Amino acid sequence: MKNIVLFGPPGAGKGTQSAHIVEKFDLFHLSTGDIFRANIKEGTKLGMLAKEYMDCGELVPDEVTIQMLESEASRHLGQGYIFDGFPRTPAQARALDDFFQAKGEQIDAMIALQVPEPELRERLAGRAATSGRPDDANPAVIQNRIDVYNEETAPVAEHYRKQNKFRDINGVGSVEEVFGRIADVLQALGEKA
Ligand code: AMP
Question: Which of 39, 9, 6, 10 is nearest to 138 (CA)?
Protein backbone atom coordinates (compact mmCIF):
# COMPACT_ATOMS: atom_id res chain seq x y z
CA MET A 1 0.00 0.00 0.00
CA LYS A 2 1.20 3.47 -0.88
CA ASN A 3 1.08 6.68 1.14
CA ILE A 4 0.25 9.62 -1.10
CA VAL A 5 0.19 13.38 -0.55
CA LEU A 6 -2.45 15.10 -2.70
CA PHE A 7 -1.19 18.64 -3.11
CA GLY A 8 -2.44 21.89 -4.62
CA PRO A 9 -3.77 25.34 -3.82
CA PRO A 10 -7.18 25.90 -2.20
CA GLY A 11 -9.87 25.13 -4.77
CA ALA A 12 -7.64 22.77 -6.80
CA GLY A 13 -10.03 19.87 -6.17
CA LYS A 14 -8.14 17.92 -3.48
CA GLY A 15 -11.27 17.04 -1.48
CA THR A 16 -13.32 16.08 -4.54
CA GLN A 17 -10.54 13.95 -6.01
CA SER A 18 -9.81 12.33 -2.64
CA ALA A 19 -13.38 11.01 -2.54
CA HIS A 20 -12.88 9.41 -5.98
CA ILE A 21 -9.49 7.98 -5.01
CA VAL A 22 -10.95 6.40 -1.86
CA GLU A 23 -13.77 4.87 -3.93
CA LYS A 24 -11.45 3.29 -6.48
CA PHE A 25 -8.29 2.61 -4.47
CA ASP A 26 -8.38 1.30 -0.94
CA LEU A 27 -6.59 4.24 0.69
CA PHE A 28 -7.55 6.05 3.91
CA HIS A 29 -8.41 9.73 3.39
CA LEU A 30 -6.90 12.06 5.98
CA SER A 31 -7.83 15.73 5.56
CA THR A 32 -6.50 18.09 8.23
CA GLY A 33 -9.08 20.73 7.20
CA ASP A 34 -11.92 18.22 7.71
CA ILE A 35 -10.55 17.24 11.13
CA PHE A 36 -10.28 20.89 12.20
CA ARG A 37 -13.86 21.55 10.97
CA ALA A 38 -15.14 18.51 12.90
CA ASN A 39 -13.43 19.86 16.03
CA ILE A 40 -15.00 23.29 15.50
CA LYS A 41 -18.44 21.64 15.22
CA GLU A 42 -17.86 19.68 18.42
CA GLY A 43 -16.60 22.80 20.21
CA THR A 44 -13.32 21.22 21.33
CA LYS A 45 -10.34 23.25 22.54
CA LEU A 46 -8.48 22.33 19.34
CA GLY A 47 -11.45 23.48 17.27
CA MET A 48 -11.64 26.84 19.04
CA LEU A 49 -7.95 27.43 18.48
CA ALA A 50 -8.04 26.34 14.81
CA LYS A 51 -11.09 28.52 14.06
CA GLU A 52 -9.19 31.73 14.80
CA TYR A 53 -6.71 30.93 12.04
CA MET A 54 -9.12 29.31 9.57
CA ASP A 55 -11.58 32.21 9.64
CA CYS A 56 -8.93 34.57 8.27
CA GLY A 57 -7.27 32.06 5.93
CA GLU A 58 -4.08 31.66 7.95
CA LEU A 59 -2.39 28.35 8.72
CA VAL A 60 -2.97 26.71 12.10
CA PRO A 61 0.46 26.69 13.85
CA ASP A 62 2.74 23.77 12.92
CA GLU A 63 3.09 22.48 16.49
CA VAL A 64 -0.67 22.06 16.90
CA THR A 65 -1.22 20.65 13.40
CA ILE A 66 1.65 18.14 13.56
CA GLN A 67 0.57 16.82 16.96
CA MET A 68 -3.01 16.36 15.74
CA LEU A 69 -1.87 14.71 12.50
CA GLU A 70 0.41 12.25 14.27
CA SER A 71 -2.32 11.13 16.62
CA GLU A 72 -4.79 10.67 13.70
CA ALA A 73 -2.24 9.02 11.39
CA SER A 74 -1.32 6.42 14.04
CA ARG A 75 -4.74 4.83 13.60
CA HIS A 76 -4.66 3.44 10.07
CA LEU A 77 -1.00 2.71 9.48
CA GLY A 78 -0.53 0.01 6.87
CA GLN A 79 -3.73 0.73 4.96
CA GLY A 80 -2.14 3.45 2.83
CA TYR A 81 -3.00 7.11 3.28
CA ILE A 82 -4.15 9.84 0.94
CA PHE A 83 -3.15 13.02 2.76
CA ASP A 84 -5.26 16.03 1.75
CA GLY A 85 -4.21 19.48 3.01
CA PHE A 86 -1.13 18.17 4.82
CA PRO A 87 1.80 18.86 4.78
CA ARG A 88 1.36 22.60 4.21
CA THR A 89 4.79 23.79 5.37
CA PRO A 90 8.30 22.35 4.95
CA ALA A 91 8.39 21.76 8.74
CA GLN A 92 5.22 19.65 8.47
CA ALA A 93 6.78 17.66 5.60
CA ARG A 94 9.90 16.94 7.67
CA ALA A 95 7.78 15.93 10.67
CA LEU A 96 5.75 13.55 8.49
CA ASP A 97 8.94 11.94 7.13
CA ASP A 98 10.29 11.46 10.67
CA PHE A 99 6.98 10.11 11.95
CA PHE A 100 6.68 7.61 9.10
CA GLN A 101 10.33 6.59 9.32
CA ALA A 102 9.85 5.71 12.98
CA LYS A 103 6.89 3.52 11.97
CA GLY A 104 8.73 1.84 9.08
CA GLU A 105 6.64 3.66 6.45
CA GLN A 106 7.21 6.41 3.91
CA ILE A 107 5.49 8.85 1.58
CA ASP A 108 5.62 7.28 -1.88
CA ALA A 109 4.52 10.26 -3.98
CA MET A 110 3.19 13.78 -3.93
CA ILE A 111 0.55 14.33 -6.62
CA ALA A 112 0.22 18.07 -7.30
CA LEU A 113 -2.91 19.48 -8.97
CA GLN A 114 -2.07 22.52 -11.11
CA VAL A 115 -4.89 25.06 -11.56
CA PRO A 116 -4.42 28.73 -12.63
CA GLU A 117 -5.25 31.34 -9.97
CA PRO A 118 -8.25 33.01 -11.72
CA GLU A 119 -9.93 29.60 -11.96
CA LEU A 120 -9.21 28.90 -8.27
CA ARG A 121 -10.89 32.15 -7.24
CA GLU A 122 -13.92 31.34 -9.40
CA ARG A 123 -14.21 27.79 -8.04
CA LEU A 124 -13.93 28.88 -4.40
CA ALA A 125 -16.47 31.67 -4.78
CA GLY A 126 -18.84 29.21 -6.53
CA ARG A 127 -18.30 26.61 -3.81
CA ALA A 128 -19.33 29.07 -1.07
CA ALA A 129 -23.00 28.55 -1.93
CA THR A 130 -22.85 24.84 -1.12
CA SER A 131 -19.85 24.27 1.18
CA GLY A 132 -21.19 26.29 4.12
CA ARG A 133 -17.55 27.20 4.80
CA PRO A 134 -17.08 30.74 6.12
CA ASP A 135 -13.59 30.81 4.57
CA ASP A 136 -15.13 30.31 1.09
CA ALA A 137 -17.64 33.14 1.51
CA ASN A 138 -15.29 36.10 1.82
CA PRO A 139 -13.17 37.17 -1.22
CA ALA A 140 -10.49 38.71 1.04
CA VAL A 141 -10.12 35.41 2.94
CA ILE A 142 -10.00 33.47 -0.36
CA GLN A 143 -7.19 35.75 -1.57
CA ASN A 144 -5.32 35.34 1.71
CA ARG A 145 -5.56 31.53 1.45
CA ILE A 146 -4.10 31.69 -2.07
CA ASP A 147 -1.31 34.06 -0.89
CA VAL A 148 -0.53 31.84 2.11
CA TYR A 149 -0.38 28.86 -0.25
CA ASN A 150 2.09 30.64 -2.55
CA GLU A 151 4.29 31.86 0.30
CA GLU A 152 4.21 29.09 2.89
CA THR A 153 2.93 25.93 1.18
CA ALA A 154 4.28 25.93 -2.39
CA PRO A 155 7.86 25.33 -1.10
CA VAL A 156 6.72 21.90 0.17
CA ALA A 157 6.82 20.68 -3.47
CA GLU A 158 10.60 21.12 -3.39
CA HIS A 159 10.84 18.75 -0.40
CA TYR A 160 9.33 15.92 -2.47
CA ARG A 161 11.06 16.97 -5.71
CA LYS A 162 14.40 16.42 -3.98
CA GLN A 163 13.25 12.91 -3.05
CA ASN A 164 12.14 12.30 -6.65
CA LYS A 165 8.55 11.81 -5.46
CA PHE A 166 6.91 14.84 -7.07
CA ARG A 167 4.26 14.23 -9.76
CA ASP A 168 2.59 17.13 -11.56
CA ILE A 169 -1.01 16.81 -12.81
CA ASN A 170 -3.10 19.20 -14.88
CA GLY A 171 -6.00 20.00 -12.52
CA VAL A 172 -8.13 21.70 -15.18
CA GLY A 173 -10.93 19.70 -16.80
CA SER A 174 -13.90 17.65 -15.65
CA VAL A 175 -13.69 15.79 -12.33
CA GLU A 176 -13.49 12.53 -14.32
CA GLU A 177 -10.70 13.79 -16.58
CA VAL A 178 -8.58 14.94 -13.64
CA PHE A 179 -9.28 11.73 -11.75
CA GLY A 180 -8.16 9.73 -14.81
CA ARG A 181 -4.79 11.50 -14.66
CA ILE A 182 -4.43 10.79 -10.94
CA ALA A 183 -5.41 7.14 -11.42
CA ASP A 184 -2.71 6.78 -14.10
CA VAL A 185 -0.07 7.99 -11.62
CA LEU A 186 -1.34 5.70 -8.85
CA GLN A 187 -1.40 2.70 -11.17
CA ALA A 188 2.11 3.48 -12.39
CA LEU A 189 3.17 3.40 -8.71
CA GLY A 190 1.72 -0.10 -8.48
CA GLU A 191 -1.50 0.80 -6.65
CA LYS A 192 -4.31 -1.60 -7.59
CA ALA A 193 -7.78 -0.27 -8.40
P1 AMP B 1 -8.66 22.97 3.79
O2 AMP B 1 -9.91 22.26 4.19
O3 AMP B 1 -7.53 22.03 3.46
O4 AMP B 1 -8.89 24.00 2.72
O5 AMP B 1 -8.16 23.78 5.09
C6 AMP B 1 -8.94 24.81 5.64
C7 AMP B 1 -8.11 25.59 6.65
O8 AMP B 1 -7.71 24.72 7.72
C9 AMP B 1 -6.83 26.20 6.12
O10 AMP B 1 -7.03 27.45 5.48
C11 AMP B 1 -6.01 26.33 7.41
O12 AMP B 1 -6.45 27.43 8.18
C13 AMP B 1 -6.40 25.06 8.16
N14 AMP B 1 -5.50 23.94 7.84
C15 AMP B 1 -5.83 22.77 7.19
N16 AMP B 1 -4.76 21.97 7.06
C17 AMP B 1 -3.72 22.63 7.62
C18 AMP B 1 -2.33 22.36 7.78
N19 AMP B 1 -1.78 21.21 7.32
N20 AMP B 1 -1.56 23.27 8.42
C21 AMP B 1 -2.08 24.42 8.90
N22 AMP B 1 -3.37 24.76 8.76
C23 AMP B 1 -4.19 23.89 8.13
Answer: 10
Task: Report the predicted TM-score, pTM, of the whole model to 2 decimal places.
Answer: 0.95
Q: How far is the CA of 142 from the centre of ligand 1 (A)?
A: 12
Burial of 24 (0-12, 13-18, 19+ CB in 10 A): middle
76-105 pLDDT, tens digit per residue, is 998 999 999 999 999 999 999 999 999 999
Cα 87 to ligand 1 centroid, rounded to whole Å: 10
Spatial separation of the C-alpha atoms in residues 69 and 74, rounded to whole Å: 8
| pLDDT, tens only, 163-184 | 999 999 999 999 999 999 999 9
Which residue's CA is the nearest one to ligand 1's atom 1?
Answer: 33
3-186: which CATH number, 3.20.20.70, 3.10.580.10, 3.40.50.300, 3.55.50.30? Answer: 3.40.50.300
